[in-house]
Amino acid sequence: MDASSMFAVSLCTLCLVIISPTFASSTGRQPRTSYIIHMNVQSMPKVFSDHHNWYLNTLSSVSENRGEIPSHKLIYTYSSSLHGFSATLSPAELDALKESLGFVSCTVDRPLELHTTHTPEFLGLGPALGAWPASRYGEDVIIGFVDTGVWPDSLSFHDEGIGSIPLRWRGACESGMGFKPSSCNRKLIGARFFNKGLLANRPNGTLSMSSGLDTAGHGTHTSSTAAGNFVKGVSYFGYASGTAKGVAPHARIAMYKAVWTHGVYSSDVIAAIDRAIEDGVDVLSLSLGFSSGGSFLGDDPIAVATFAAMEKGLFVAASAGNDGPLHWSLMNGAPWIMTVGAGTIDREFYGMLTLGSGATITFPSLYPGKPFLGPLDIVFMGACDDVPKLESVRGKMIVCKDKLGINAQVEKAMTARVTAAVFITEVSVSEFYTRSSFPAAFVGLRDGQILMDYIQRSSIPKGRLVFQKTRIGTRPAPRVEIYSSRGPFVSCPNILKPDLIAPGTQVLASWAPQTPVGEVKSGSLYSTFNLVTGTSMAAPHVAGAAALVKSVHPDWSPAAIRSALMTTAYLLDNTRTPIKDIANYNLPASPLDIGSGHINLSRALDPGLIYDENPQGYISFLCGMNYRPKQLLAITRSVSHCIKRSLDLNYPSFIAFTDREGSHSGGNFVKEFWRTVTNVGNDRSAYAAKVIGLEGIRVRVEPDRLMFKQKNEKLRYKLTLEGPRLSAEEVVHGSLIWVEDSGRYSASSPIVVTSLVQESPFIRSKSDRQV
Ligand SMILES: *[C@@H]1O[C@H](CO)[C@@H](O)[C@H](O)[C@H]1NC(C)=O
Ligand SMILES: *[C@@H]1O[C@H](CO)[C@@H](O)[C@H](O)[C@H]1NC(C)=O
């Protein structure tokens, strides 16, 4: 199963789940729904020894069955991720609860969706490059995953070369079906599971595996992508062969399983993050998201729970979602999260068709069956819509062209159990097709013409097929993928999102071996490694990168680590031209597609300058968004009054909406940003501001030189953007780069000026001005 079909499955699950709460239960009582309830702990009466008892008592007082001990209604008590609990309530009970002492707000417990041998080199990692030895391969850092569990016997989780478990670790390796405490080691140091929310929402759901064991493959894949140890000689049926390793090969892995075959609920995800915070996780990697969020950040369980994580110093990397390429399609864009989009890497998997004439045609392929086939007779079968006819030429290589859509053609060929097929198509087909269950080649119109000419000229046309070929160094790479969700972020448009892109397409990593990875005629195929695609795969790359930065700079805040990764990202691909957008005819991508660019670890450990931020800064920012006291309390847990309101979060990127900003002379828009940079490079260093792109916009940086006298000194500057209001849907972009005089350091920040209107339909203006 490839990533896209996995998401289809999770979406279907979601539909089922949404319907179920509206069914009245068989006992005839009012339907019950589960909720996440935020409470103000400052209101807790002194008679209660702890929050749990207070919540139980509150529930008991609103219960329809007076005097009942409502512990079965209480799903979880939360203590670190938010103040409150989750519970199953009838409408009347919910109404009564809303009048209770300390009640702040509630949201329905809604479902979420789930969203490498070669990639570490592509990130600029390798023993010679210094990042691994300097960080001791991330050994001191614990990365937590909220995912589908983990397959502990995977080779990626061996603990050779890794020292003893950090003493501060408070997590556990919980036993359950197929999982023993001894399943953990010095690499995989924790595994817990959370399914009370799922069971409350789907009382009839059967759990395939009540433990941290991964039966889907996704969690094994993400965790080994971030922190898998070295495994020699792996491949996916011959594709991508080499040594597999995570980005931080010696970082510790702690799995919090909250994603189940039957769905994933907010209440379980919050409980998982709650535990990860308490256990002492340093970096959180989240490859799931909440897509149906409204405009209030506090309705998004991941935004809420990760605010608490950020306050405790955890770095959070999360996938931007696979809902691209429209603007406003991004998830997980809260300002305290590092939001990761997905790009391609410089690697291609392909097959080759060699004709009797000696001519060869290559085509993208992930066919996992026998790698060699032929020579076979070639027969042209037109649109391939006649199954009996196709059956009559079994043993030959059929060629199909036009009329029917590719989908129907492939289906007919499969039904007829053809020996091999070549499909001539003008559309570039997705991985779903190239991972075909029978020997198939999808070729474009130009190669198709070569093939047709050969068939016409030759008396007995023949061809051979070869599969499982891997090519490295393909250009251009990286490119931003079609599926990668794009900014701005609906709930918080004033921060430019995504933050950056990382490899997401066809990432090779460990897999749960009892979950099929492909299908051929003889049945399902299984593998301990799998190639998977999605922003789910991009986020753990960044989590691993953050682990390496944190190993070298253990005292850096999550914002400082994010800044280091963002300001050192690159904007040029391997043809030295701007990174391109596959969804937009390979034209240059904008920061709304790729943020600061593609992650480059060889610079991130020593960025020279950082844009730091503390929890107070985020609170001032939320105040700047004019949230009401109860809304603030739901996110911050303790703050309901604003001391300072400011949208100037100290963020290493900039976005201005021309229609909303103040006017200046002649109806121009004017937007000012204040930022503070910290010198983490040499003691005495001077930086000069350089601005690129932003055609038609007046850009001022004051001062335009920063002179640091010592390390850790902070200096402030102001960026002013001024220009005409843009016409509808325009995106103008560029960068501000602080370049150190010696040339050793430079810190780059993307700038977007746009007239995009929230949730407006996607129109890519032809006048998109490029850098
Ligand atoms: C749940 O299971 C019970 C007992 O087996 C059954 O009576 C009920 O119809 C089931 N409910 C749903 C929604 O499937
Ligand atoms: C990554 O950073 C290194 C060190 O500055 C640089 O040499 C390399 O070109 C960068 N990679 C890309 C793809 O820009």
From TrEMBL:
Top-level taxon: Eukaryota
Active site: D147, H218, S536
GO BP term, pick one: proteolysis
GO terms for MF: serine-type endopeptidase activity
Keyword Hydrolase: yes
InterPro entries per the UniProt record, alphabetical: Peptidase_S8/S53_dom, Peptidase_S8/S53_dom_sf, Peptidase_S8_Ser-AS, Peptidase_S8_subtilisin-rel, Peptidases_S8_3, S8pro/Inhibitor_I9, S8pro/Inhibitor_I9_sf, SBT
Location of the protein in the cell: Secreted
GO CC, alphabetical: extracellular region
PROSITE patterns, alphabetized: SUBTILASE, SUBTILASE_SER
Keywords per UniProt: Glycoprotein, Hydrolase, Protease, Secreted, Serine protease, Signal
Family: Belongs to the peptidase S8 family.
Record-given protein name: Uncharacterized protein
